Amino acid sequence: MESLKIGQVTLPHRAVFGPMAGFTDAPCRRLMAQHGAGYTVSEMVSSRALTYRDHKTVSLLKADPNGAPYGVQIFGEVPEIMGEAAARIEEYPFDFLDINMGCPAPKIVSGGAGSKLMLDPDLCGRIVEQVKKNTSRPVTVKIRKGWDAEHVTAVECARACEEAGAAAIAVHARTREQMYTPGIDLEIIARVKEAVRVPVFGNGDVRSAEDAVEMVRQTGCDGVMIARAALGDPWLFERVNAALEGRPAPAGPNLQARMNALRRQVEEMVELKGEYVAMPQARAQAIHYMKGLRGAANLRRVCCELQYLTDIDRLIEAVFEEQRRAGEAGDAGEVPFP
């Protein structure tokens, strides 16, 4: 399969890791890259905060080389401020600059940013134009199907962004009104793919290798963007890449490997941010590692009690104890990570 490029950036794989506020920090991105994410993207950062050089916002951009191209995602609704923000971060090490036009969060759309931009394709184009003018890196955008059923504007927004210089477009195949349910509309991804010449990534409901293959088959998209489904399961990228590249499915991780990954991720979070900041965030990350395990409901409660790094060892002990007890009770069935 021919390599996929975003501008001058060559991707190692076609399954990429989408940004999620509160989750896709540097340790999380590194973990996904190690398991085959074609690229990773920072948590979204405010263009206004960047122009003010807000220390907390700038800290979200920190990245060490992790084996995959790395993009910084910014959001805002004023083209000139977005351009200024791009200029301010030009000194930082990253490979491409991504513009958020898809976030459905009320606090983002109430200011006119995120998916609110889907109501104004012309504004989308002007934002890309200003960002492109102020960065030496490729510029990408993440859009939605549209704002609501009456404003399905993905094709118009994608065309405006491409004409303004966007090098790739990711399409979350739901409107803002739909948020994250119901199922995605594969047809809108196909329509965007037909409308532009730059690479298009389909996004939404890719939870398995089969989902990824089917999305590519039905839409013709160049790659798939995976986000929440990879939390706690970075091996999903290995499975998806193998399926997309025509290779045999890789062996899955055993339970010890899964717990090792959890512990390493939380250790890196604490090292990066300190225990006080990292551990509340680690609770949400840890919950995703409980997917499919026996006694998951009880284990999620233990996750919610994490306060110190040493508590991770207590959680891991509880995980193994729950699986052992389920086995003794004859209720183990298929332990998902044997």
From TrEMBL:
Q: Which residues form the signal peptide?
A: none
Keyword Glycosyltransferase annotated: no
Report the active site residues. C103 (proton donor)
The highest taxon in the source lineage is: Bacteria
User: What reaction is this protein's catalytic activity?
Assistant: a 5,6-dihydrouridine in tRNA + NAD(+) = a uridine in tRNA + NADH + H(+); a 5,6-dihydrouridine in tRNA + NADP(+) = a uridine in tRNA + NADPH + H(+)
The EC number(s) attached to this protein equal 1.3.1.-
Q: Which PANTHER family match?
A: TRNA-DIHYDROURIDINE(47) SYNTHASE [NAD(P)(+)]-LIKE
Q: What is this protein called?
A: tRNA-dihydrouridine synthase
- Organism of origin is Candidatus Faecalibacterium intestinavium
Gene name of the encoded protein? dusB
